[in-house]
Each structure stands twice: as structure tokens, then as C-alpha cells.
Design a protein that fits this description.
single chain; about 475 residues; alpha/beta; 7-stranded mixed β-sheet; 4-stranded antiparallel β-sheet; 15 strands; about 45% helix; globular; binds pyridoxal-5'-phosphate
């Protein structure tokens, strides 16, 4: 009881004293520990009706102080509703889960709240972030002039890459620019083109062969566009597509981009993390020749949502495209060998994103990530083999990375029933996609909490559902 009153003083000053910080921190940490103790068994989804009433949650903040415990209760009941992306049974879209060590780094970064948009104000903190990004550049085989920028995700990384490519290759001649992707490219590329001011319809959809961009077809489209007086400037390869986890022929695309003098961007938002493994490096071969690479540590490095990375071969391209100046920043100096993040992307003021990467990587060591990612590749390989052995199922593509897409033989109805059946258990949550106008369930066991036991369980469920559907359809 004593703690309660300490944790929720009637009039909590905006700046609490040390005792109040300790009391509030303990209350929150207790709840964090309870969450950590239970998440391994948390269902992947809960019925929407079981949650709190949305209207209650939308009440405006009161004039008078609230009670911390009661407010945290509200948060927890809200977080218990819907799809739980932290659950080991969450196999949809791109699970990450979020590492506790990263959250601790984030807490520190937020409490210290230092400005790291320019190196001059916090050179040492910027050096820590820069060190992680330089290490990533080296892992991807980029040369010493390369640099990185932490973003909030793959979409923002793609936008900055596209703006850098546009600035570098087109200058002001934006109206005639064309870029090349496939139907399996993530929509963030088309959206970035629109936001970056390219006219509609300038994202050319290159035909694919077995879900992968056909380089010969791309070459032909580039040639035809040039003849029309357009300016092809950007080729986008994907290092792990969203629907099926397929990797484009990156080495061939790199060669094409070089021959045609196009900027080569690789969207490795999902697949990028696997570069830390031998198998991943093998699958992503050619990525080292990219002009820019987008990757999402909040997908394949298990980190919290809101963590993306852009790597560029030539840091100058990013800086030139995102330059800015004003008298109010005239006191700031550049620091030798350190980047000014506020001038490498569209954001000037940003949260210090370095620690959420730096702390887990230094604390667990890189080998922990390599091993965990390797284990995810094993899970997907084994799930593929298991599903492919079921005569009721069709598993069209051996996974390049960790997305396994499959369908029930026959029309889409059986696949829909299977999808709904799995998700209705609440224990697991999977998502779907369409390829060649056929519905597919996609399952992605990439969350760090998802282990072989969970995959065994969901596979058994899938076989059982497929059998049940089949006998129903036959009766
Ligand atoms: C998830 C994804 C994106 C978008 O990234 P966000 O972090 O959600 O903005 C882009 N490209 C691919 C291939 C993806 O899988």
C-alpha cells in the first residue's frame, strides 16, 4: 500500500524526484517482468469482443492527476486485445517480438533524451550508432565510403533511398524518370515514387520467372523507355519478398544496373538480417553491389517495431539529397568522420535510435543473432518439407529464407477455411497472400520466441484442418 501511494502521488510533479522515479519504475518493471514471464504461453490472438470498450479508451485526458496503477491496468487490458505480435504463435506478416535488451536501451535513450541529429552535440553517442551502421555496411560488403541511417522502418528507408537515387541520377529532370520493380515488390516502392514526385505510372512492372525479376525483360523495358525519351534511373531488387520471401537474382540485377547506369536498390527489409548467416549471404549474393540497401531490424533482427536501416554505398548521395541550412543551426560544426543524421534523411530531430541496436548487439554478441537466424532458416526448411509431404496441400516454392507459402489443393475455398481454422484457435496467427491469382497461406516462423515445438504444433494443426476440410468437402 505504501508503494501505491508513492507510485501515484496525488500531485505528481512533471519532474519527479529520485524516490518517485524509483517507485514508478518499480511498478512498471514488475509489470514488465510479469509480461516476460507469461509471453511464452501467450495466445497469438484474442477475440476482439473480450477487450475493453474502445469508447472508454478514447476519453480525453483529465485535468486532475490519475493513478499510475489504474492507468497501467488500462494499458494492459488494451494490449491484451487483438493480435499479439509478441506471442510465439504469431507467424503472420513479419514477427519480431522485440528483445528485452533493446527495450532497456530504449528506456535509457528516452530518459536521457539527447539530441543526436548532429554529431557536434553528442559525438560519442553518434559514434556508437555509427559503429553499428558501419558494421552493418561491412557485413553487406559495402566499401569504406558507405554509411547508414536508422529510420523507423523499411518504408522510410526506401523513401530516402529513392530520393537519393532521384537526386543523384535525375537532378531536376524528375518528370522523365522511370524505375523498375516487379509485381512482387513491396508497395512502399511505388508509394515512395509518388511521394518523391515521380509522375504516376513510372514504376515499370518487370515480368518475373518463378517469382523473380527477369533481367532480360528488364533490359528490354529499359531500352524501350530510353527510346521513348524517358530516363531510366533506378532498378529495385528485393532480398526476400513480402508474400513469399523470394530473393530476386541480385547479382544479375547488379550487373544490369551497372551496364545501364541505373541506381541499384535492394529492398531487404525482411531478408536483410539473414546476411549475418552463411546461408543468407549465399542467397543474397550480389547485394554487396547495391547502391542502397533497406533492412528492417524490426523484422529479421528481432528488434522492436520502429527500427529500420538504410545503407548507402556513397554517403555523399544521401547527404546531397537531404541537405538543409538555416541561420538557427549556424553554431553547429561538423565533426570529422561522424555523420550528421539530421542531414541524411528527411528528419532533423529524431529519437536516439542507436542504443536500441547497440545494446543488444554488444550485450548478446553477434553470434547469438547469427545462431538464432540460422535456427529460423532450419525451421522454415523443415516446415516446407513437412507441408510438401501432405498430399492435400500444395507448397509451390521452396523457401529462399523463412516465409513458407502453401495452399489446399483445389479452389480457394479450402485454403480460406484452413486459414480461418488456424486463426480461430487463437493459439496461432497466420496471414495470407495471392500469387498468380491463387490464395495462399503464408507462415513465417521468424519471431525469436518461436521454436521447433511451436512449429511442430502448428504443422499438426494444419494437417488436421486440411483433413477435416477434405472430409467435409467430400461428404
Ligand atoms: C515490410 C517490408 C517493407 C516495409 O517495411 P516497414 O518497416 O513496414 O515500413 C518493405 N519491403 C519489404 C520487402 C518488406 O517486407
Amino acid at each position: 500500500m505504501r508503494e501505491d501511494t508513492e507510485a501515484s502521488p496525488r500531485d505528481l510533479p512533471l519532474e519527479p524526484d529520485r524516490r518517485a522515479v524509483e517507485a514508478m519504475g518499480r511498478v512498471v518493471l514488475d509489470r514488465v517482468a510479469a509480461f516476460a514471464g507469461a509471453v511464452a504461453h501467450a495466445p497469438a490472438s484474442r477475440p476482439r469482443e473480450a477487450g475493453p470498450a474502445l469508447a472508454d479508451l478514447m476519453r480525453p485526458p483529465p485535468e486532475k492527476p490519475g493513478e499510475l496503477e489504474a492507468l497501467l491496468d488500462t494499458f494492459e487490458s488494451a494490449a491484451r486485445q487483438g493480435v499479439d505480435t509478441a506471442s510465439p504463435g504469431y507467424l503472420a506478416y513479419f514477427p519480431a517480438g522485440g528483445l528485452f535488451s533493446s527495450a532497456l536501451g530504449e528506456l535509457l535513450a528516452q530518459v536521457y533524451n539527447r539530441f543526436t541529429g548532429v554529431a557536434d552535440l553528442a559525438p560519442a553517442l553518434v559514434a556508437m550508432e555509427h559503429g553499428v551502421l558501419r558494421w552493418l555496411c561491412a557485413e553487406f560488403g559495402l566499401p569504406s565510403g558507405a554509411a547508414g541511417l536508422t529510420t523507423t522502418g523499411g518504408s522510410m528507408a526506401t523513401l530516402s533511398a529513392l530520393v537519393a537515387a532521384r537526386d543523384d541520377r535525375l537532378g531536376d529532370a524528375v518528370a522523365t524518370g522511370t524505375l523498375y520493380a516487379t509485381e512482387h515488390t513491396h508497395f512502399c516502392v511505388e508509394r515512395a515514387a509518388r511521394v518523391a514526385g515521380l509522375p504516376a505510372g513510372r514504376v515499370r512492372i518487370v515480368p518475373t520467372e518463378g517469382l523473380r525479376m527477369d533481367p532480360a525483360a528488364a533490359r528490354e523495358m529499359i531500352r524501350a523507355d530510353r527510346e521513348r525519351g524517358l530516363r531510366p534511373f533506378l532498378l529495385v531488387g528485393t532480398g526476400g519478398t513480402t508474400s513469399t520471401g523470394t530473393v530476386d537474382p541480385l547479382a544479375e540485377l547488379a550487373e544490369l544496373a551497372r551496364a545501364e547506369d541505373l541506381w541499384f536498390h535492394v529492398d531487404a527489409a525482411y531478408g536483410g538480417g539473414f546476411q549475418l548467416t552463411a546461408r543468407g549471404r549465399d542467397r543474397l549474393a550480389g547485394i554487396e553491389r547495391a547502391d542502397s540497401i533497406a533492412l528492417d531490424p524490426h523484422k529479421s533482427l528481432f528488434l522492436q517495431y520502429g527500427t529500420g536501416v538504410l545503407l548507402v554505398r556513397d554517403a555523399g548521395t544521401l547527404a546531397r539529397a537531404h541537405r538543409g541550412a538555416g541561420h538557427y543551426v549556424q553554431d553547429l560544426q561538423t565533426v570529422e568522420d561522424l555523420p550528421d543524421y539530421g542531414y541524411l534523411g528527411p528528419e532533423l530531430t529524431r529519437d536516439y535510435r542507436g542504443l536500441r541496436l547497440w545494446l543488444p548487439l554488444h550485450l548478446h554478441g553477434v553470434a547469438a543473432f547469427r545462431d538464432a537466424l540460422d535456427a529460423k532458416l532450419d525451421l522454415a526448411r523443415d516446415a516446407y518439407a513437412d507441408l510438401a509431404s501432405d498430399p492435400l496441400l500444395e507448397v509451390p516454392w521452396k523457401p529462399d529464407l523463412t516465409v513458407v507459402a502453401f495452399r489446399v489443393r483445389g479452389d480457394d475455398r479450402g485454403t480460406r477455411r484452413l486459414l480461418d481454422g488456424i486463426n480461430a484457435t487463437g493459439r496461432f496467427f497466420v496471414s495470407s497472400t495471392r500469387v498468380d491469382d491463387r490464395l495462399l497461406v503464408r507462415m513465417n516462423p521468424t519471431g525469436h520466441r518461436t521454436g521447433a515445438e511451436h512449429v511442430r504444433e502448428v504443422l499438426a494443426l494444419i494437417h488436421e484442418q486440411a483433413r477435416k476440410n477434405n472430409s467435409k468437402a467430400g461428404s
